Amino acid sequence: MRLLHTSDWHLGRALHRVSMLDAQAAFVGHLVATIREHAVDAVVVSGDVYDRAVPPLAAVELFDDALHRLADLGVPTVMISGNHDSARRLGVGAGLIDRAGIHLRTDPAGVGEPVVLADAHGDVAFYGLPYLEPALVKDEFGVERAGHEAVLGAAMDRVRADLAARPAGTRSVVLAHAFVTGGEISDSERDITVGGVASVPSAVFAGVDYVALGHLHGSQIIDERVRYSGSPLAYSFSEADHRKSMWLVELDAAGGLSTAERVDCPVPRPLARVRGDLQDLLADPDLARHEDAWIEATLTDPVRPDEPMARLCERFPHTLSLVFDPARAPEEPGVSYARRLKDRTDQQIAEDFVTHVRGAGPDDRERTVLRDAFDAVRADDVLREVAG
Fold first, then answer.
1. What's the rounded Cα separation, in Å, for the pair 16 and 321?
2. For residues 6 and 246, is the Cβ–Cβ distance under 8 A?
3. The predicted structure's pLDDT at residue 364
4. In which band, very low, low, confident or very high, does the pLDDT at 147 lie, cut at 50, 70 and 90?
5. Cβ pair 91, 53 in contact under 8 A
6. Residues 337, 383: Cα–Cα separation, whole Å
7. SS3 string of the chain?
8. CA quadruple 43, 48, 51, 55: dihedral, nearest 10
9. Sign of the CA dihedral with 198 first, then 203, 207, and 210 last
10. What is the pLDDT of residue 216?
11. How far is residue 145's CA from residue 156's CA, in Å, rounded to a whole number?
12. pLDDT band at 283 (very low <50, low <70, confident <90, very high)
């Protein structure tokens, strides 16, 4: 069976206030063309269909168009909700849509109920594991403490139990939206840390033939059978070096992964990061190749120059982001607050504050209190977003 694995469409997202809707529509067209060209047997979409729980109307219309085009192809599609989606909203009408061959899996209670497709070699069971927010699903899965590994492990126990009851030789595919240990992150992914831990080991998915992951935006191989497709478009400058693609996967008759190749996605405009003094950026001939790219410029001038954005746009008309990082010695005063907090988690910042105000850092009990508080706030934010 030939599968096309994609994820993280983030319909409705912008790149530094530049609408990506046209590029997303072009991707949908490319997806349809790829399905035809490669005679794909099934499509899997591993979450984050939308960029937010309540997407703009234009994004909903594009998704509707995508559903119609996929249904018209007559190629089954299995799709799960991600952490950016509202599972309940995305799942509205799932029963009706199912009749058109588009199988939306957004309910955590249904993880052990696969979509079963058949080819000349027998059945393939597709198990959809939507994003499992630990605080919201721990009771469903009967785990004592909310954590990604615990809820995913419980969900996979249901998958393995169902698979064990099926005829020998049934092949299996799991769709999941999660941060698996060993994956490389980018700036455009929402933090899903719970209890101080964001990632889960790939061993949690043991016992299935292919795991189609979503959440991380770079295409990557965790191991031969566990892969991220990545997002089809770049949604931050941290993805400037990504090769955006989908996985074209074949399962052999014995259930193993026969082949996996990347199918490139269309690039609306390349992204580039440039760094240096303003005058150097404006004069450097080596940067001519970036003049038509979307640009993030980091200026290292010791004194902020006049009208830097306007001057950069004369050479790089698609400059979207301007960062100031003046060259200073590490101990020199005046380093910005934002720069001092760069790459630090909320937990680390809170612990630093405790150290600052009382002269000693938090003990293990206090760290747990802080961690639980951040987890509760994040879970509440999820509930508020879905309810809104």
1. 7
2. yes
3. 82
4. very high
5. no
6. 31
7. CEEEEECCCCECCEECCEECHHHHHHHHHHHHHHHHHCCCCEEEEECCCECCCCCCHHHHHHHHHHHHHHHHHCCCEEEECCCCCCHHHHCCCHHHHHCCCEEEECCHHHCCCCEEEEECCEEEEEEEECCCCHHHHHHHHCCCCCCHHHHHHHHHHHHHHHHHCCCCCCEEEEEEECEECCCCCCCCCCCCCECCECEECHHHHCCCCEEEEECCCCCEEEECCEEECCCCCCCCHHHCCCCCEEEEEEECCCCCEEEEEEEECCCCCCEEEEEECHHHHHHCHHHHHHCCCEEEEEECCCCCCCCHHHHHHHHCCCEEEEEECCCCCCCCCCCCHHHHHCCCCHHHHHHHHHHHHHCCCCCHHHHHHHHHHHHHHHHHHHHHHHHC
8. 70
9. positive
10. 96
11. 17
12. very high
- Which has the minimum average pLDDT: 80-94, 123-137, 190-204, 237-251? 190-204
Query: What is the C-alpha to C-alpha distance for residues 252 and 211, in angstroms, rounded to an integer?
Result: 15
Token code pair at residue 222 = 């965790």
Count, residues in the chain:
388
CA distances to 12, 54, 69, 174 from 60, in Å: 8, 9, 14, 26
- State the Cα–Cα distance between residues 386 and 53, nearest whole angstrom: 6
- The partner residues of 323 in beta bridges, in order of sequence, read 298
* pLDDT grade for 327, boundaries at 50, 70 and 90: confident
User: Encoding tokens for residue 302?
Assistant: 């010791």
User: Are 60 and 22 spatial neighbours (Cβ–Cβ below 8 Å)?
Assistant: no
d(CA 173, CA 128): 9
Structure tokens at 50: 């939308």
Q: Quick one: CA dihedral 283, 236, 180, 349, positive or negative?
A: positive
| pTM strictly above 0.90 | no
What amino acid is encoded at 298 in this protein? T
